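Standup notes
- HV: blocked on the assembly model, inputs below
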Amino acid sequence: MTSLATCDRLTVRYPGAARPALADLTLALHAGEKLAVVGESGSGKSTLARALAGLLPVGTALSGAIRWSGPPPRPGRDIGTVFQDPGASLDPLLTVGAHLVEGLRAPLPLGRAEARARAAALLARVHIPDPERALAAWPHQFSGGQAQRIAIALAIAAGPHLLVADEATSALDVLVQAEIVALLRELCRDAGMTLLFITHDIALAGTLADRVAVLHDARLVEIGPAARLLAAPREPYTRALLAAQLDLASPRLVGTRP
Amino acid sequence: MTLLDARGLAKTYPGERRIRALDDVSLSIAAGETLGLIGPSGCGKSTLARVLARLATPDAGSVRLDGLDWLALSGAGLRHARRRLQMVFQDPAAAFHPRATAGGAVADALRIHRLVPRRDRPEAAAALLRQVGLSPDLARRPVATLSGGQRQRVAIARAIAPRPRLLVLDEAVSALDASVRARVLDLLVRLQAELGLAYLFIGHDLAVVRAVSHRIAVMDAGQIIETGPAEALLSDPGSPLLRRLIAAVPALHRKDPPV
Amino acid sequence: MIRELLRRPEALLGGLLLLLIAGAALLAPVLSPGDPLAIAGRPLVRPFTDPAFPLGTDGLGRDLLAGVIHGVRTSAAIGLAAALVAVLAGMLVGTAAGFAGGLVDEALMRVVDAFQIVPGFLLALAFVSVTGPSLAVVAIAIALGAWTGPARLSRSRVLALREADFVAAARVMGMHPAEIALRQVMPLALPPVLAVTAVIVAGAILTESALSFLGLGDPNAVTWGGMIAEGRNQLRSAAYLSIIPGIALVLTVISIYLVGEALTDVLAGKRQS
């Protein structure tokens, strides 16, 4: 399997922070895979996403290296990013169409009409009903799940190799979350895109990803194939993370009657 | 014994879309019982919480709480009666005054309901912090400097301070990391046993709601579409929504059951 | 916050000037003992000619430096008192309007509109001419035209804060609405209001000078406006009589503005982060 990017002893420290947000992290991102990075708050998982997407704030101290197998990615074109809050990527004063047309024309040599046609096709790809009408609509007219679909359309507009989803489903209710996960799976399969899926939910990571990496206190605890890691975790921390996770087979904490 | 009995609650938000947030909702909660309330976002479960906590006024319906005509109370009478029903919010960071200290927040609740003499208040606040598993040393710390789990414990301490009969937990563990959430759930179950509290446990994660609820109610588009004992309801779901909610919970396929 | 303020050159300059001015106000009885309105020497000594009167004397032989130094006290007292009254009244009205909402809000905000439509100076002029000049009356007269800004600012903050979870939590706890409004919400509406307070102080000092200039100030206190007005009669022969208190006035107002602007910036930056 060819790697798309390799983090080699990557250490990231934010300005003014006492401890590094990522410490000595070595990890390969394979081309075409869906890699989930799991951790609790403060584990460094979002920092890893930002480092790979080239979105670390100015003044961040970085040591070690991120090596790309091909030419270094062009920001906004080769890497798409989706965040927890779709409002962060959508300007309330621009129509959905204006977002997408701008997102398409900035990196690609497209005419206005052509960009508009492609924008409608993008909305259809993320399953927004009636794309033509949606182009003229404003971000606030969509529900959280629909807005996240539009944010995903915007992220993949330029045809990136890598899609970084940073807690992209965390603010959504479970039903919508399942739909977005299905959409991400479908987009990666159809476009051969690599997915870096950042989440705090190890069970959700297991349903989507090929491989799962567990981060704790800025360090990589364990990485492995999703099925193996969830069924037979090697590290105590991963076991603890799984033990804290509830599913419908977990023992109930109360009796049947008060 | 029925602690809370709500009948025919209705509320429509004005505006162009006229959303029917509550459409003839009836439910009851027994003393010491946990009723889990689950549904997709926008189904009206938070409106129900706000109506029961007297933060929003319903268009129609009646509520009896601990023998009181709950919706008829107003002014000083309502403020006095509020100690029976307390609430814990989803975002523990937003639920405290930005300058509140942990001890001060708990002491406020004691002061308002004049439950302990003024000079015993710090001691009583410390005892409540201990009861929710926090060190009393945290009493002087601003809530803003505490971790998410600690903040939510302070919120629980504040909520149990006036010795309520019912806690409305509106997505109270949804914003917490899994390991923190597990410990807060243990705390809630322990407090229920110690204090005989009833809970309305609102959540969107069926696995969590199932773990702590005696009964579960499923809500959709402003209506409660089914209610039943937790295990029985999940093994025989009546509505397509509940079946979809069950299917949306990722199974962990554990080899050995967790301890 | 103070460190952040010191990093801004305009705040540093304004702050130093203010310190100087405040020092003069505090030390006035030491720096120039005696009555500043008393005749001290020959009339119309030019500035920088007699070491006994560095800034010269006026047509009656009163020391101009003593007048400027004691004038600071009047200006500072009126400026601060007027701003205090304006901020307190404005915040109470704004908080009440924002918190109560509905008809109370409508009624209070129409009152605010009415006060805002009439120029503050005209209000002050009318009030003082009816009640007669004294320091307290002048302060209240100026506050009449200045309280609407704080009222609007605190109302808009309170409107946003009213929906916050911590307010809901306080209601569920059974806290009295007055306590929620005054103890929980109003302090949080303070920072933006505090930032415009400097502007109110500066405006109040200007208004007071204008009132004194028109002869409506307290006749028993030295004021810069009064000095400028008296100098006006000899504007051709002894312009310095008006220019020196004028410079004092301009420097004071500018330094307060500089500090106020920097404070607004710092507070705004804080809110964003």
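- HV (later): unblocked. Strands of chain B lie at 2-12, 20-30, 34-38, 60-65, 68-69, 85-88, 166-170, 198-203, 215-220, 223-229. DSSP finds nine helices and ten strands in chain B.
- Next: hand off to the docking folks.
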